[in-house]
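In the current project phase, work has continued on tokenised descriptions of protein folds. One protein thus recorded appears below exactly as we store it.

——
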Amino acid sequence: MPAAEASASTIAADPERWDDFVASTELGSYLQFAGWATVKAVNGWRSARILADVPGGRMGMQVLVTRPRPLPWGFAYAPRGPVASSWDPAGVAAFTAAVRAQLPRIAGPISHLRIDPEIEADGPHDADGAFRAALRDAGWRPAPAIQPRSTRLVDLRPDEAALWADLRKKWRQYVNKARASGLAMVDAGAERLPEFYAIYQETALRAGFQIRALSAYRDIWEAFAPAGNARLLFAQTPDGRGQATLFLVRCGPRVVEPYGGMTAAGAESRANYLLKWEAIRTSREAGGTSYDMWGEVTEGIAHFKTGFGGRDVEYIGAWDLVLNPFGRRVYALGQDARVRLSRRRMDRERRAAGAVAAEGGPGAAGAVGVTRGDAGAGGPAGVAPDDAGGVAAGPGGRAGDLA
């Protein structure tokens, strides 16, 4: 039965139908695919899906739930949700009512639910703040961000010549320099994930952010690659040595670059410039309509990414729906304590990494804080942000741990 003819409850209960629905929506995200719930289940996150018929179409989300012991309430998070076939603000009230009725029943007691849909602030679906006003009217309130609040999007619908012309002149020169030196982009498989991780770990040490264990990225690959929704790219030398890498994930025609990095040699050869251009170009060839560079967390990152064209997009941010006010207050106190402890741990790891690097010891690259991750962007309160924001001279970065 086609998704359009199936009932909302049938689609929500069937992972394949759910993924088809997400991929068919204008703002669908890979973080709403059933595969992401599988990835995060390793860390103890349970999942539930809600899909409701609302004015103008359907609105739904896949929710990840964690229950910090000994609290009886769970924290619920819908990374880059909800998704919808129609973003009519009139549908928000109906969807919120469905959430209040269904989520505690299918997921147990919940203190609060956080969402962060990819709706552009004051854009077509939030004209004059209409969608945000509808959220407020339905009981939602602005909340701390988990995923990047802004990003750089490249529209892939123009032809290749137009995309190339949109690159900054110096960036085109860097791409040509890398190509002239013999570097080339290649698609790779799971066998090169360890090489990807080594480059990513080197980048993390250089840029000062935490990453997850290799097994986490292998889990993501295994969740998305079989359906053709993941690509592992390298810019490599003629003898096959990778100097830059990108791990792309796709949802329908939307392509995202959540992870990546480069070696010191890659910085010298401009391998990262060649690789990003080729990622954009070949994503278009494969039928992609947009390329998301996933966050602009520093001026350096923004400068690097803007050189590839596209436009900056600011989202409406994260919003909370409190389902149990007392549970929400208790949870906040616990999270404040967790943030303080995590920051102390991260400070110790940075100092240790700096000491090892200063000594030039063999463990320098491994001294980066490596974490298995929580659910998408650094824990419910943004603790220990992980990869999905971007690194200045090579993509990669933060925001994948609570997603």
User: Anything to note?
Assistant: The radius of gyration is 21 Å. The longest helix spans residues 325-359. The chain has 13 helices and 14 strands. The first strand starts at residue 46 and ends at 54.
